[in-house]
């Protein structure tokens, strides 16, 4: 909570609107984020309809299945919440149903909820619902928006600037490291396609017991792979990732990346899949700010660091089978042109 308040103190005085990005599967310290932000009016809308994540009567659904009945948290140590109210407890909230959202009176109902010291939690089934929520919310003075990438996209649509400048060109002299830290089953096919496209892969031993200290031989193999072109770091877990070891494995991935990047001769661009992996890697490298540039595909966001390197972040469960290939081709267009010829 202290980190959120520190960020608020740094940025909110200079920004007319503050948006907090949370995980679309309700993982992480959402209650602490909301509590830290709630010294001003707060509206919560966590749905991500394009990713199949909708909110119905205050319950998050994944492709129509309530979160707590799905397998979305299979790699987590904790059990998923049944309702969003459970996530926020003991903070009081009020559910804004889809009927409320589409009533034409949403703004008044949000204001009434805030006046009653209840955090509005908005249902959403479509991107149009999120657009409606955004329109009703931004009229509230000093409001703070909290949501997933769905609400962020709605904000982007509302603030879009015609004729925006194109993204600066990528530097092909940078090293390119792809870090796959997700346990999502769909990632296996994505990794195979990237390997088939010629990207070298280094797997770190993910069998328990897990040691967090990087293994010199794995760091050496990753350095060798990076010297020859884009390289991918993955978890080598033939029998699947043990949920009880997931936190240690993320720390091991991040520590291995940090140790490797320290010895790479050129600046390193990164592709990071899985939210916890991305956060750990960026923290380990001392990267505390990202400027979004563009979206490679839904959920895969290309950002620039203060030092000029590229970082693409993507939720572990997102993307078609060619997701990683598309991201690498976006960062290294010459590889795509070569493949086409």
From TrEMBL:
Pfam families: NBD_C, SBD_N. Residues 4-155 form the Four-carbon acid sugar kinase N-terminal domain. Keywords: ATP-binding, Carbohydrate metabolism, Kinase, Nucleotide-binding, Oxidoreductase, Transferase. It comes from the Bacteria. Belongs to the four-carbon acid sugar kinase family. Residues 177-324 form the Four-carbon acid sugar kinase nucleotide binding domain. GO terms for molecular function: 4-hydroxythreonine-4-phosphate dehydrogenase activity; ATP binding; kinase activity. This is 4-hydroxythreonine-4-phosphate dehydrogenase. Transmembrane segments: none annotated. Gene3D superfamilies: Four-carbon acid sugar kinase, nucleotide binding domain, Putative sugar-binding, N-terminal domain. The keyword Nucleotide-binding applies. Its EC number is 1.1.1.262.
């Amino acid at each position: 909570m202290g980190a959120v308040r520190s960020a608020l103190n740094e940025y909110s005085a200079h920004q007319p609107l503050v948006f907090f990005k949370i995980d679309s599967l309700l993982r992480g310290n959402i209650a602490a984020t909301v509590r830290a932000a709630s010294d001003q009016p707060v509206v919560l809308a966590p749905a991500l309809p394009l990713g199949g994540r909708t909110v119905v009567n205050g319950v998050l659904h994944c492709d129509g299945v309530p979160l707590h009945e799905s397998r979305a948290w299979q790699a987590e140590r904790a059990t998923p919440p049944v309702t969003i109210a459970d996530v926020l407890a003991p903070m009081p909230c009020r559910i804004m149903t889809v009927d409320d959202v589409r009533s034409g009176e949403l703004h008044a109902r949000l204001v009434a909820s805030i006046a009653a010291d209840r955090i509005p939690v908005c249902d959403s089934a479509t991107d149009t619902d999120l657009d409606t929520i955004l329109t009703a919310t931004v009229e509230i003075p000093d409001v703070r928006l909290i949501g997933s990438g769905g609400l962020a996209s709605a904000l982007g649509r509302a603030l879009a600037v015609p004729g925006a400048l194109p993204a600066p060109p990528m530097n092909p002299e940078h090293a390119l490291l792809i870090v796959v830290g997700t346990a999502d089953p769909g990632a296996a096919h994505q990794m195979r396609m990237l390997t088939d496209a010629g990207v070298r892969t280094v797997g770190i031993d993910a069998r328990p017991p897990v040691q967090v200290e990087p293994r010199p031989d794995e760091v050496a193999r990753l350095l060798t792979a990076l010297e020859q072109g884009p390289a991918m770091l993955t978890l080598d877990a033939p029998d699947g990732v043990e949920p009880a070891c997931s936190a240690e494995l993320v720390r091991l991935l991040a520590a291995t990346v940090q140790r490797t990047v320290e010895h790479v001769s050129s600046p390193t661009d990164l592709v990071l899949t899985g939210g916890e992996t991305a956060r750990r890697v960026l923290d380990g490298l001392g990267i505390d700010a990202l400027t979004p540039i563009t979206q490679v595909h839904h959920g895969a966001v290309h950002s620039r660091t203060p030092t000029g390197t590229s970082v693409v972040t993507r939720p572990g469960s997102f993307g078609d089978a060619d997701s990683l290939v598309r991201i690498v081709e976006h960062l290294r267009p010459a590889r795509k042109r070569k493949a086409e010829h």
